[in-house]
Amino acid sequence: MEGDMNEMEVKLNHASRHAAESQRILRYLQNEELKEQWGLTECRNNLLMAEVEELRTVVQQTDRGCKMAKHELLETTESQPAACPGRRHLRGLAG
């Protein structure tokens, strides 16, 4: 009976060490997975930030083009004679 108890204790110690080692490996693998996910998230964030900057540039260029077109329209309508039909309408568009 005492021999059985000693044998069970040895098995229990072995199982405990094995369980501790398995938990250590699991934590390591989870940490590695988190590092990989972090890297992918950071990469995606960088791509999105670059896209935002590109879109901001397009909006600024479009805004400048719109302002230039309004200015040209205003200059054109002001250089036309007063009898030009629709002149008031064009001024309203430019303003």
Automatic annotation (TrEMBL):
Superkingdom of origin: Eukaryota
UniProt keyword list: Coiled coil, Motor protein, Myosin
Assigned GO CC terms: myosin complex
Name assigned to this protein: Uncharacterized protein
